[in-house]
Amino acid sequence: MIVRQAANVLDLLEFFARRGQPATLAEVSAAFGWPRSSTFNILTTLAERGFLYEPRPRAGYYPSPRWMALAQEIAAAEPLPDFAHPLIERLSAETGETAAIVAPAGTQTVFLDVVESPASIRYFAQAGHRLPIHATSSGRALLTQYPKKERLALYRRIDFQRYSETTPLTAEDVEARMAEEAGRGWHSSHAEYSADLAGVAVPLPLGERRLSVVIAGPMFRMQDRMAEIAEILRKAVASATHRPAQR
Fold first, then answer.
1. How many structural domains are present in the chain?
2. Which of 21, 168, 191, 196 lies at a C-alpha separation of 20 to 30 Å from 72?
3. Last residue of some domain: 51, 74, 97?
């Protein structure tokens, strides 16, 4: 169930991120098809709380630095360990593909940190990127860390739509895929959600936190190297997480 008012605020933030410049009430209203009165209420509420400001007279509204300050405070309270970014830098360099650290977000996954492949044809992603938890290797590497009862409850909230010919379409399909993947010690996806993309993922052990590490790239480069990439990934994660000093 989506709370529309909250969704509108988040949509507005993404709108400004894409636009990269201020927008007037009329421009925001036209972009979303919102009534002018509703648009006025959202914009003035955010402005009065200090989350929007007017950079120039009559130029419209733009997000204020308050968003960044809050995000920094939030991130500082639940940081990734010091080894996390060097780990995915190493993995991207060794494999030539995009590497990321991923966390659960309801029925989705969210990328917390990303190092993109240097290749011109690559998996494009950035922090905040979201994917279905059941239809990705990184998602199933997270689901293996859930007690089965919790997984089954989560499946009831998932919209099992078909993204491709390889998308798991039921809870039973996901559980069977996970059982098969557990036998070899790593998770994989072959265009289950994004056409022509493949991924290899493993859990990232870090206390009670549920995280995974994924390496993803185009099928034409990944499909014959899945086992090789999985071995690189497993060794790198084992080496990083067995260091004596962690946060």
1. 2
2. 21
3. 74
Please calculate the CA angle 198-199-205 and round it to the nearest 5 degrees: 175
Quick one: angle between helices 148-155 and 171-184, nearest 10? Answer: 140
Domain that residue 161 falls in: 78-242
Q: Is residue 130 part of a domain?
A: yes
- Kindly list the distances between the CA atom of residue 220 and the CA atoms of 53, 93, 158, 227, in Å, as whole numbers in the listed order: 47, 18, 30, 15
Q: Of the candidates 57, 11, 68, which has an alpha carbon nearest to the alpha carbon of residue 38?
A: 11
CA dihedral 48, 54, 58, 60 (to 10 degrees): -90
Q: Is the pTM of this model over 0.85?
A: no
At 189-224, the pLDDT tens digits run 998 998 899 999 999 988 888 999 999 999 999 999
- What is the DSSP annotation of 105-128? ETTEEEEEEEE--SSSS-----TT
The string of pLDDT tens digits covering residues 148-183 is 999 999 999 999 999 998 899 999 999 999 999 988
What is the rounded distance in angstroms from the CA atom of residue 212 to the CA atom of residue 225?
A: 20
